[in-house]
Write a structure and sequence with these properties.
The chain is α/β, with parallel strands linked by helices and 318 residues long. 45% of the residues lie in helices and 17% in strands. Helix 7 links the parallel strand 7 (177-180) and strand 8 (197-199).
Length: 318
């Protein structure tokens, strides 16, 4: 696979949660504007934003609101929302919000979709039984895809009921809906209803196996003309050496996920720019065309520059 077609994105929000004073209002807008300019000049393709309602202790930003704020703040960068917890919302409202953001930035929005569950209290607080997340996701994603395509939807399912519902205007360019998740059910969902698979916490070997499985499920569902957009999200640490880099990313992950770093460590690239590039390269060979990086490098600016340097190494200095 050509490395030139791979797209690189940066997410800086968790670093703000963990180790920096919270900015708001004009200070936040000015800070983000500088960072977006730096990303564009460095050759970064997109800003990655996350989505949580009340993750461990109340942390989070609404993903589609955040995406709208990004696309209206920069004309040069795309936005990749990952992962959006669609199961916590009604699909009709989700589709309307997606279409609203897309009007601001035609062709610049991509969504990675997940069912959540790392904090079950978040799911329960939104009135959703965690045991039903997979089935709700299947219904929601099927409905949203049809609404985004401009169809008039009548539907009677386990969770949702719609009677001749239609949303306009619909986008001229399709909005990629990329399904995240490591379970076999998630891979089936990606193949039957998604435009790709988005991985996290997995090896390059398993990534390749997952992509093959997704595309096989698509064929079984009669989908043979999908423009696949497979990708990976990496928390990562950058430093003068591996020890320095580990000391940056490990405490941040432990604080947010409330889990020892050694549970994640084998899936987290950290070290010098060269170390991280070496870790990521096999995922391109596995079939990934999108990478989302959550970098810890001492500052937002250093994180952007480090990811840009990884990009240059993987794309042969371009």
């Amino acid at each position: 696979m050509s490395h030139d077609n791979v797209r690189f994105g940066v997410n800086l929000m968790p670093q703000t949660w963990v180790d920096q004073p919270v900015k708001s209002g004009a200070a936040l807008l000015t800070h983000r504007s500088r960072l977006f300019d730096r990303m564009a000049r460095a050759g970064i393709d997109h800003v990655m934003v996350g989505d949580h309602v009340m993750f461990h202790g109340g942390v989070g930003n609404d993903g589609l609101t955040d995406a709208a704020s990004v696309v209206t703040a920069t004309d040069e960068l795309d936005v990749y929302l990952a992962v959006y917890l669609m199961v916590l919302r009604h699909p009709l409202l989700v589709a309307r919000q997606i279409l609203t953001v897309a009007q601001f930035a035609p062709g610049r929005l991509s969504l990675g979709l997940g069912i959540g569950g790392d904090d079950r209290r978040e799911v329960i607080a939104c009135g959703v039984d965690p045991k039903t997340r997979g089935r709700r996701m299947d219904e929601s994603l099927g409905i949203v895809r049809r609404l985004l395509a401009g169809e008039t939807v009548s539907y009677e399912g386990e969770f949702f009921s719609l009677d001749e519902v239609r949303l306009r205007p619909t986008p001229e360019q399709p909005i990629p809906l990329v399904v995240g998740g490591r379970s076999n059910a998630a891979l089936r969902r990606a193949g039957r209803l998604g435009d790709g698979w988005l991985g996290i916490w997995t090896s390059a070997t398993r990534c390749a196996e997952a992509i093959d499985a997704v595309q096989a499920h698509a064929v079984d569902a009669g989908r043979t003309d999908v423009d696949w957009k497979h990708g990976m999200t990496f928390w990562c640490g950058f430093g003068s050496d591996r020890s320095d880099a580990r000391n940056r990313v490990a405490p941040a992950m432990e604080d947010l996920y409330r889990t020892p770093f050694d549970k994640f460590e084998s899936y987290v690239p950290y070290g010098t720019v060269e170390d991280v590039a070496e870790f990521v390269a096999p995922f391109i060979e596995a079939g990934c065309t999108t990478f989302n990086f959550i970098p810890f490098a001492g500052s937002d600016e250093a994180g952007i520059d480090a990811v840009a340097d990884v990009r240059k190494l993987l794309q042969g200095g371009s």
